[in-house]
Every structure is written in C-alpha cells, then in structure tokens.
C-alpha cells in the first residue's frame, strides 16, 4: 500500500486484548485510525506496531498505530449474543439442509407458527429455496433434517469458525497475532 497516496481511513489498527490475542477474529477486531489515536492519548492501549504514515497537528506528530494492545484485560464472554450473523458463523455460512452458501436466511426448526422460539437451539442457517420449501412444516414432515442440530455455541467456537474465513486484506504487521487455519475448508 502506498502510504503517501492512501488516506488515513486506509490504516485501521488491529486491537489485541492485554494477552495479545485479537478481541475477535470474525469480524476481525479493528479500530479506525481515529479510535486508535484517541485510545493512545487516553492511555488505554500500548502501541505494538506502527504504519509508516503519520498524522500531524500544529504541535504534535504521531505515526499511526497498526497494532495496539489493551492495557486492561477484557474477559471474553463465554457465550455470544444471539444474532443472525452469529447463527451464520456457527453454521459456517452454509445452508444446513443443502450446503448452499448463497442467499442465506435462517429457519426455525419448529416454526414460529407452531410455537417455535427464536433462539440458538431452534434456528439454523438455510438458503432461501430450502427455507421456502420447508415453509411452516416440521423438519421431519418436510423430509428436511439439518446436517447439524442447532445449539448455543461458545465464543471460542465462533472464533474458531471465524478463522476459517480470513478477511481479504491483512496487513503484514498483524500476521504475528492472527492464527488462520488455512488448511481447513469452511
């Protein structure tokens, strides 16, 4: 990346916990250059690595941080929040009925019309055609059983799955802190 032609917005900082592990793998824990500079001034982070790019004011000049670590350890939650994205991540972004990876939705195993709740143990990732095919039927009535029974994942499991989907861009200064499992297929 040409540091002289790029705007500061092109310089996010990888955020590590105090133990030097990323706060999150997917989405990757990144702060904008403004957030990282503010955290430095508030003495909340240590600068681990820097870009060649600087920002200046009339009385100050600073190289932009490329990797920062929190000064205070943030204990990760054991269980993640229930969100559509986290359901997709748990199911590795594939339909649990046909393995398709396009046009993803989520499906209630026990349909809401039959009292099914929107929670980890009743929702699976489904492509739109499979979701429409199953409709309001129970899985066994529709002849559609999911490949994996739905469950509430741990944060560790979501991080493990997230490492199967590395982002398109990884700055060289980040690589020592990221552990992508490139040998496993998502």
Key terms for this structure?
elongated; two-stranded antiparallel ribbon; 20% strand; 6 strands; 4-stranded mixed beta sheet; disordered C terminus; 186 residues; disordered N terminus; alpha+beta
What is the overall shape? elongated
Helix content: 10-25%
Query: Quick one: biggest sheet?
Result: 4 strands, mixed
Our measurement of the CA-to-CA distance between the termini, rounded to an integer number of angstroms, reads 29 Å
User: Strand tally, please?
Assistant: 6
Number of helices: 5
Hey, roughly how much beta strand do the residues contain? Answer: 15-25%
* Secondary-structure element series: EEHEEHEEHHH
Mean pLDDT: 89
Class from helix and strand fractions? alpha+beta
Parts with pLDDT < 50 across at least 5 consecutive residues: 1-5, 181-186
Q: What is the rounded Rg?
A: 21 Å
Question: What do these coordinates show?
Answer:
With 186 residues, the chain is an alpha+beta fold. Helix content is 19%, strand content 20%. The protein has five helices and six strands. It has helices at 33-41, 84-90, 128-134, 139-142, 155-162; strands at residues 13-16, 30-31, 45-56, 61-70, 104-108, 123-127. It has a four-stranded mixed β-sheet with strand order 2-1-4-3. Strands 5-6 form a two-stranded antiparallel sheet. β3 (45-56) and β4 (61-70) form a beta hairpin. The chain is elongated, with a radius of gyration of 21 Å. It starts with 12 loop residues before the first strand and ends in a 24-residue tail after the last helix.
């Amino acid at each position: 990346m040409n540091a002289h032609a790029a705007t500061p917005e092109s310089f996010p900082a990888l955020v590590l916990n105090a133990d030097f592990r990323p706060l999150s793998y997917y989405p990757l824990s990144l702060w904008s250059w403004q957030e990282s500079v503010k955290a430095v001034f508030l003495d909340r982070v240590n600068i681990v690595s820097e870009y060649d790019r600087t920002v200046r004011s009339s009385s100050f000049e600073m190289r932009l941080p490329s990797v920062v670590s929190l000064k205070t350890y943030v204990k990760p939650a054991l269980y993640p929040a229930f969100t559509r994205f986290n359901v997709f991540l748990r199911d590795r972004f594939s339909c649990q009925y046909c393995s398709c990876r396009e046009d993803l939705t989520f499906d209630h195993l026990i349909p809401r019309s039959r009292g099914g709740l929107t929670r980890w143990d009743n929702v699976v990732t489904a492509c739109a055609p499979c979701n429409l095919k199953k409709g309001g039927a129970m899985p066994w009535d529709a002849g559609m059983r999911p490949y994996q029974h739905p469950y509430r994942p741990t944060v560790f499991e979501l991080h493990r799955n997230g490492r199967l989907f590395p982002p398109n861009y990884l700055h060289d200064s980040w690589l020592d802190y990221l552990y992508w499992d490139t040998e496993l297929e998502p």
